[in-house]
């Protein structure tokens, strides 16, 4: 049965249509980055790198097909590994920790479509990124909070980096870190009890607009230098949730230091400083919102942003943490009707999220919209970043019995004033 949901935005509704169930047959733990390379639709699921808590990853892969459905129909044996940069020694510059590709930007100046920039979510621990007193970079192993695997495990800190490919994703070169939070803002013991992150930035979704790439991401650190004595839950919550930064497209090959976070009035906060989250995407304390470090507060996370050509607006999908251990049984949608994200505070003008999926007893992560293989989608080479009226909703659905990355609905976005 088709369901129509009021988005809260004048003249815009979302309809969920039942669709034949599809499942993706390999590991997914991130936004699903997609791109057309020649006649192939390519997807980039999986994890790569060093992870002493959950195990090293060697399953960041490429899935390919002559259509969107064909790429998502691949099972693990049909995926191929790209050539990725080696993990650097602990004290050396280079790639550290584990990475997941979250967005792939295709450089329009390359007519072959083979030049790609991948924004990656990068997780580290004090062990994999030790603190360097000379530079102030890295993580101090002091009062570090325990992680998801129990008292003997430790929490990871996410940050966001960029890799570049000139062969359509077959091989990648690391270009460096785009956004990170400094060690001084990590929320440690005895305050931190969330078992996930003491701080950091992660789960990015990026869209090009004008001369910039706008990066939407989760922000988990304290908004100033942290200490247990002066910690304040309200101050913490005021600086957390989904935030946005931007980086000039010309700087994607040398991103470190080039990005600026939104600071409440402009893109003026440094790449490693504290910005301001998007106010409409914060959950008030009266509705269960609060500091991420406490482990029992609600907050939105995991944005997935696309431009919808049918309604002429930006669309964001979100998960929501409702309980300890990153548990949340719902997915949400927000709309931004400002075409130019660089116009004043346009990047902040997102509608209050509305729930589009609710599955009690399930934990839902990483929603994304993907093309539906219509003749128009195929002709226009649409991807998860640019979509038409109808798209496929994909997400990770987890229960005690199974973890699946699946799609059971098409999402249709419509202008309600238009003729039906």
Automatic annotation (TrEMBL):
InterPro entries: Sialidase_sf. It comes from the Bacteria. This is BNR repeat protein. It comes from Salana multivorans.
């Amino acid at each position: 049965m088709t369901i129509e949901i009021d988005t809260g935005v004048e003249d815009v509704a979302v309809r969920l249509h039942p669709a034949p169930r599809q499942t993706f047959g390999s590991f997914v733990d991130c936004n699903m980055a997609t791109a057309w390379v020649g006649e192939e639709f390519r997807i980039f699921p999986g994890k790569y790198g060093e992870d002493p808590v959950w195990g090293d990853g060697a399953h960041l892969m490429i899935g390919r097909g002559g259509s969107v459905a064909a790429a998502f129909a691949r099972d693990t044996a049909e995926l191929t590994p790209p050539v990725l940069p080696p993990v650097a020694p602990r004290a050396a510059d280079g790639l550290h920790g584990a990475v997941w590709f979250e967005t792939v930007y295709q450089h329009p100046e390359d007519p072959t479509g083979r030049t790609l920039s991948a924004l990656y979510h990068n997780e580290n621990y004090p062990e994999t990124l030790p603190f360097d007193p000379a530079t102030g970079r890295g993580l101090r192993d002091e009062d570090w909070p325990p992680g998801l695997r129990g008292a003997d495990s430790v929490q990871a800190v996410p940050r966001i980096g960029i890799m570049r490919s000139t062969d359509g994703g077959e091989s990648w070169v690391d270009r460096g870190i785009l956004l990170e939070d400094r060690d001084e803002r990590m929320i440690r013991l005895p305050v931190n009890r969330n078992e996930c992150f003491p701080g950091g930035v992660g789960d990015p979704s990026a869209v090009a607009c004008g001369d910039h790439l706008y990066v939407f991401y989760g922000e988990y650190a304290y908004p100033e230098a942290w200490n247990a004595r002066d910690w304040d839950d309200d101050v913490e919550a005021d600086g957390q949730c989904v935030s946005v930064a931007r980086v000039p497209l010309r700087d994607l090959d040398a991103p470190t230091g080039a990005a600026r976070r939104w600071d409440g009035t402009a893109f003026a906060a440094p790449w490693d400083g504290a910005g301001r989250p998007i106010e409409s995407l914060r959950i008030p304390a009266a509705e269960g919102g609060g500091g991420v470090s406490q482990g029992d507060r609600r907050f939105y996370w995991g944005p997935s942003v696309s431009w919808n050509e049918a309604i002429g607006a930006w669309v964001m999908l979100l998960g929501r943490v409702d309980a300890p251990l990153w548990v949340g049984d719902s997915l949400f949608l927000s709309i931004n009707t400002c075409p130019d994200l660089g116009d004043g505070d346009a990047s902040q003008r997102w509608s209050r999220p509305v729930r589009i999926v609710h599955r009690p007893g399930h934990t839902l992560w990483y929603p994304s919209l993907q093309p539906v293989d219509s003749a128009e989608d195929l002709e226009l080479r649409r991807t998860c970043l640019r979509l038409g009226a109808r798209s496929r909703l994909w997400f990770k659905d987890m229960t005690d019995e199974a973890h699946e990355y699946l799609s059971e609905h098409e999402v249709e976005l419509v202008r309600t004033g238009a003729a039906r």
